[in-house]
User: What shape does this take?
Amino acid sequence: MSADAGTLAQRLNAHLGEKIAATHEWRGEITLEITPENWLAVAQHLRDDAEFRFEQLIDVCGVDYLGYGQVEWDTTDVTSTGFSRGVEGESAGRFDWANRPRTGAGHKRFAVVAQLTSIANNCRVRLRCHAHDDSLPVVPSLVPLWPIANWFEREAFDLFGIAFEGHPDLRRILTDYGFVGHPFRKDFPLIGNVEVRFDEKLGRVIYEPVTSVVPRVTVPRVLREDSDLMQARAEAADKWREN
Assistant: This one.
């Protein structure tokens, strides 16, 4: 299948119909939104259909969309020149629990993303499935279709708390025994809940609340394409030409 991304998206929609909740194309990449009810059926169709033959599962990961779309950079009432920006404490890690960020109306918090590759057709497609329940996110397991999904799904369960229905051995894979919480969730404390040390008097390792680490939250830079930055780039280019 040597068709471009647009043609591939059209074929996918024609074959899968209502089983696809939405289709997104961006920079030649195709993402299919699938509901949990159709997750396995769509994945199996893409794997077994002779026209698509997405036989290889590259990755399965979890995503936490808590606070998705919120921006901490204040760009309207702080300054209109240069790169200096004010910061508003809105995103994960810079809030108290009562004022924590929340998912928008009709938007699910947790999602599972699977990357599929067709070696025969030299193309890729991304599948995304949002769990219905934010308090207990559950998505069907892809292990029956691709056994390699076993450890990927265990990782998503460990780090995000997403349960995979039908998984043969769903248990933590990266965190320690007795670990509390899921460290990749955006409302998980950046310094953790407990710390571990060896107590010489007791002669054993003990767990206790974190006291040796000072909470510190960094503000990620935001890649912007607004007029201010474009003007700054143009001015920098002019200075470089003059020199």
